[in-house]
Design goal:
Radius of gyration: 31 Å
Strand content: under 5%
Distance between the termini: 16 Å
Order of helices and strands: HHHHHHH
Structural class: mainly alpha
Largest sheet: none
Number of strands: 0
Helix content: 55-70%
Length: 210
Amino acid sequence: MWYAHNPGRRARQLLGDGTALLWAVLWAAMALAVHRLVQPASQPAPHRPRIPLLGSSVDGALRGVAHAGDRIVSAAPATQGPAAAQALAVLGAVALFVIPVGLMLTVWLPRRLRWTRQAAAAQELAGTEDGRELLALRALLRPLDELAATAALLPVAADETPDPDPDLDPDSDVPPDPGPGSLAKGWREADPVVLDALADAELQRLGLRT
């Protein structure tokens, strides 16, 4: 599973994937441009045409690489100059692609793979009673504000009344605890309503269908 069921979560994932792909394509095009600039068969550096879609600073940097290649060719023996320039062209193009794309992948790819593993495991657990109990336990470990929001969605039975407390005024009405404590109590007692609410909250957090 690579994309969430939730439309908002799926749109963010598609946007992130598209941005990563565009980043890789742009650096691949730039690497090819550098390779053509530094090749021994290309024109001398002063006469090389400007690369389209690049700013003056980037184009100037690429021309500096081309000048360096020309200096290597002129300094090397006649029999080794073209080979040295060709090697420089290949190494420069590879480095220009691998470094920025590799940095992007170290940030983007682990997060995508982690979500994919979590979503696949959650979908598998959601199909069994014991699995949903594990999902509920995981939901209990979320921040307190998220637990409070989940507890607020729990239905309260019309005939639900608290146990009498001799230390309290018998005429006072004490509502059941609507906070995260009620979720922990319901999980310990295997309350199916609480377990389902917690499991659904964990699935929704991952953007999955409940």
